[in-house]
Amino acid sequence: MNNNEEWSAFLKNLTFNAVAQHKNSEGYNYIKKRKEYIDEMLTTHLAEDEKQFVEEILLELGLIAEHEIAFVYNQGVKDCIFLLKNLGVLA
User: Fold this and answer.
1) What is the mean pLDDT of the chain?
2) Cα–Cα distance, 41 to 64 (Å, whole number)
């Protein structure tokens, strides 16, 4: 395993742990309830073909947001390490 692969594995592990911690938060529970409410609205207010169309759009938007958040999180870790190295805290 080279340095890039090790770094990538390290960042994925940090991301996984952050997501796991988030799933135990009040914010996550709120988002979960909102998602259930949205699902109910889709089921009760849209025809089946409209529901599938809207669900596809929401899925795509969710995937885009997920990738953006992962990028920002990983960049934040890199920036933090860079700053700590420049401050002499890390070797």
Assistant:
1) 91
2) 23
Question: Per-residue pLDDT averaged across 4-25, rounded?
Answer: 89
Contact residues for 90 (Cβ-Cβ < 8 A; gap 6+): 81, 84
Rounded CA gap, 53 and 55, in Å?
Answer: 5
- Tell me how far apart the alpha carbons of residues 20 and 10 are, in angstroms, rounded to a whole number: 15
- Pair of tokens at residue 23: 């799933």
Question: In this structure, are residues 42 and 51 in contact, taking their beta carbons and an 8 Å threshold?
Answer: yes
DSSP one-letter code for 46 = S
Please write the tens of the pLDDT for every residue from 16-43. 998 899 999 999 999 999 999 998 998 8
